[in-house]
Amino acid sequence: VINDGVVSIGSRCFENCTSLQSLTLPYAGLSADYVAKNSYPLVYNLFNGSVPEGMYSSSGYGIPKTLTTITITGGTRIPNEAFYGMTSLKSITLPQTITNIGNYAFYGCTGLTDVYINNSKANWANVTIGSNNEPFINAAKHFKMINIKTQPKAVTAETGKKVSFTVKASGDALTYQWQYSDNNGKTWKNSTAVSGKTATLSITVNESQTNRLYRCVIKDKYNSKKATSTAKLIVTPAITGQPASVTTTAGKKVSFKVSVTGEGLKYQWQYSDDNGKTWKNSTAVSGKTATLSITVNEKQTNRLYHCVITNKYGVSVTSNNAKLIVKAATTTASTTVKTTKATTTVKTTAKTTAKSTSKAATTAKTTAKTTAKSTTKAATTLKTTAKTTAKSTTKAATTVKTTAKTTAKSTTKAATTVKTTAKTTAKSTTKATTVKTTAKTTAKTTTKAA
Question: For the chain, which terminus, N or C, has the lower number of CB atoms within 10 Å?
Fold first, then answer.
């Protein structure tokens, strides 16, 4: 098997390969250029040499008799006289790319029975076949095109994650080989992953693999092959901790934090005042670190924040959005107002109570004075009456005595009332006490007078 990518094949490369059974070539000649120019036909130049009698299939060209199967994997034409006289050739497989078969290309291939064409019958009808190719024309045609139904898709994943590339294809006895390229498809290497020879490639990725291309080369039992389209792998830094929303009051200092795993990380915090439609870079000192710390005001309420993280390979990932809610700093002021109001109320109540007490004390004093005056007057009247009626009868004296007692009781009751009032409304002042004393003295005087 000579793989694709070989630029040229040396003359007499297979000379004396007397046991060669099958041959896979990237083109039907010594090079693609020779094929295009119909120069150096394959049959004359790959095998030309001496082969022992009975071991050759084409007299004079050194083609071994054992060679029965040939597969061509590339090129657009089979040149003139390419397989001229190969009587041992039984089957040949041609790629989808073939558009022209030269004159005498299969002349003398009397053993050819099967032609496997990696193309549709409709497309094959457009291929030009030159003269003197009856063995080829009469052989059975098998259109066994590898049909890729689902191409692998590009993948973006965080570093350390497991990803998969999948292909779905139809054909006979398909085999798979995943390949990757680190130079945008210029060269390809076979994947050595365990799943590298299956329809689904599964790998754990790291950041160094970012921008790597993947494809799968599919072959069937006829050695026809077909490659999938390429799929790009993008590996981003891994965010392990997202920023959380914050509710606070104006004037407070708050922080938004993001935790990330990656290589050569750079941070840029951004904010949005229109619910994420547009974003602006934060100019805070900490705006290019993993933790954004800012002092907030009420104008920033409902503002969204997120962080854009970029690794050393130029791949970026953006964190989730976190919302900032800023409330007016009114709680402390309200408490002060309420406390002041309560203090004023207490003070007013105290003043009112004091005024009431003072008023009550004044009233008590006035009442005591009035009672005292009344008692004095009563006592004077009794005294006068007593003098006037000194010669009165026993009945008159008894009446006076009774009157005096009644007056004394009234006076004592009045004094008691004054005492009770003073205790209830004031913690009595000195003057109130004086009133009490005066009232008692008056009562005694009245009793004596009686």
Answer: N
